[in-house]
Amino acid sequence: MTEEKKQNLSSENFNSTANLTSNAVYPSTLTITSRDVNDEKAYNPFEHRQVKHPNSVLGSIAHLIKGCLGTGILAMPAAFKNSGLITGLIGTLIAGFLCTHTVHIFVRASQELCVLAKKPSMGYAETCGAAFTYGPKGLRSWGGTVKNIVDYSMTLTYLSLVCVYVIFIGSSFKEVLDYYIPNHSLSIQTYCVLTLVPLVLIAQIRNLKYLVPFSAIANFLIIIVFVITMYYVFMDLPPITERNMVSDVAQWPLFLSTVIFAMEGIGVVMPVENEMAKPQKFLGCPGVLNTAMTVVITLYAIVGFFGYVQYGDEVKGSVTLNLPQDEILAQSAKIIMAVVMYLSFALQFYVPMEMITRLLDKRTSTNYENVIQISIRTILITISVAIAAIFPNLELVISLIGAVFFSTLGLFIPAAVDTVFLWDRGLGKFNYVLIKNTLIALISIIALVSGSYVSVAGLIEDMSGHGTQHNVTV
């Protein structure tokens, strides 16, 4: 069997994450040239993409902003505490550029791989596997293995993100209710458990199209929270000179992993791009990606910088938890942000369930489909709530997840995929693509090792009893 036939057979293994049901055909301006494409007219994936509920450009921007703009923005002042004002501001801009760049090269590679594989669209894991399948000859047999490994890693990543949402919602309600009902104070663990039923209910929404209103409402509410938070942040702002310009280097790993966690929405990117009515507008200038990330980076820098100036080393895992407890406006911001996390939950939960649903689609029987879906979603959320109750330290959990998962999926893997895909297609003058991607991979490894070490050390200290009081206030 020829190598070309092997490639064609291999491409059959890659199923689109957006291959729902047929609908209209969308025109495309995609132009991709490749040595592997011998057709007189190259296959245009956008013209073959059939999506039952396509998202508009504005809807896609809303989804992407919401995917990147969650609990992370409120953790930015705590990140600046671990870096200092100057280091934090520079680091945020650099991290934002890196996250945007890695998403760009990954989506570009995915679109070009769709041409080679003659697929209308690919998901994150499919793109990773296809990069090897259509990459250097010595790596082509690894395509299926890489796809499966990344698939399970992505699922685990976004299930861990559920824990952060649970901790955040529980902590916000505890802060408010403990003040107004001091005689019936409950533990943070109890509040985490109380989130179970509402989260299970909203997790039953299974279509991105129906999540657009939730994202729109969440984006509107987060603006309200942002305005209220900034009101208190800028109220009687202390002199900048009272804060550290550059913090202890030993704390930088916590800053880096928190920022990566905050900005990285790689798991939401491909589903959003795959279900766009006009996917050719995802990249480019201004484009969906650049527009969304410009908004995200700007907001993160503002909240992080001035949040730390206002609260200094007393800042908590979420800056809303530092707002005054004796003012209704401040307390309402905490509750509103908890609602935002609730409305955003289904979008984040869509990522792991997308992979699980694809596995279920391989079943020969469709009996009890709804029962199975409901059961799986309920079980996964129950496990996540239990883990959140065991480790309710918001700041350290965010840092750990950012270090372990998002540094790998958001930085290392896109750099590796881009390198493998372009290995035989040209790495640029002086191999600058290889050098650039190697640097990105090194940053990812540094964040992984150092961030994990510092975060785990902090969690162990909490479990030993030193962090009991701290857990309640976070």
Automatic annotation (TrEMBL):
One of its GO terms (cellular component) is vacuolar membrane. GO terms for molecular function: L-amino acid transmembrane transporter activity. Residues 54-455 form the Amino acid transporter transmembrane domain. It is found in: Membrane. It comes from the Eukaryota. The chain crosses the membrane at residues 57-80, 86-107, 156-173, 185-203, 210-234, 254-272, 284-308, 328-351, 371-391, 397-417, 438-460. It is a multi-pass membrane protein. Keywords: Membrane, Transmembrane, Transmembrane helix. The keyword Membrane applies. This is Amino acid transporter transmembrane domain-containing protein. It comes from Parnassius mnemosyne. The lineage of its organism: Eukaryota, Metazoa, Ecdysozoa, Arthropoda, Hexapoda.
